[in-house]
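Q: Hi! First time doing this. I have a protein sequence and I read that you can turn it into a structure. Is that right? Here it is:
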Amino acid sequence: MVSLFDHPDLHRWVAQTMAERPIRAVVAYSAQMAHFVPMLGPDVRFLMDFVDFDSAKYAAYGAQGGGPMGWINRREGRVLLDFERKVAQRADICSFVSEAEAALFRQACGLGADRIVAIENGVALDYFDPAADFPAVDAGEGALLVFTGQMDYRPNVEAVESFVRQTLPTIRTVRPDARFAIVGRNPTKAVEALATLPGVIVTGGVPDVRGWLAAADVVVAPLRIARGIQNKVLEAMAMGRPVVASPQAAEGIDAQDEAHLLVAANPAEEAVKILRLLDDPACAMRLGMAARDRMQQRYRWSATLAGMADLLNRPASKAHGQAA
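A: Yes, that's right. Below is the predicted 3D structure, encoded as structure tokens:
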């Protein structure tokens, strides 16, 4: 994951920028960018924004899989964790997208809450707004379930495959008109193949995802492996849509099951809760309105980033050692 993103030109650009400009603080975004941070002077503050605890994701892949890919993922998890720990020792402060992620990393690296913090994601509430001006989508007839995401990303691919094969058939036995739209760019061949199954739509990339979210009767997030905060869930809730999410997708979001969204632990429970919303549009509307209200209360960018300036402007706390 680190070597894949290496590039000598970026190392040179960073070195030149550090030499020519009065840099007081460096922010590295995600683990694969950390190795571009050179040796820093004692007066330069280093904030490492890991976002997610990535090595834990690869460890989970490795635990689930066998054969060569299982071995590769287990090795990537071990090697990446070692790299993450070394980077954390260099940084003045490390941030993760949720307190749950931050707590896991504290346990793994042995550093405390003074060095490992949570900086939550926000959502652009003026953009993801059901009252905003965006092109409507003609989604056709029948109940519409929507999933959004980058469709060459393994957790998203596994989520939609699971939903199509295990959840959607149960829903369609009760609601034969129900359709499932997979909305996102770069669908893999496996995702494209799902469009041949009854009720499945694969859109590929769309110019504006808001039209599909607005057209959805229910937005689903059936991820089985997930890290951090799922932006797709925040965006759907900001659009005032009722959301049914797995515990993994809901983890880290400050919202309550049954009050702001519905959490379903497995395909059978997903089908039950989705059908409940389809059968009771008034309940679905109330849940969507509560979701929008919760996003306004908790996830404005101005609120989630309120502490960033203080983190960057504090004096650097130590020498930063050599580059990772």
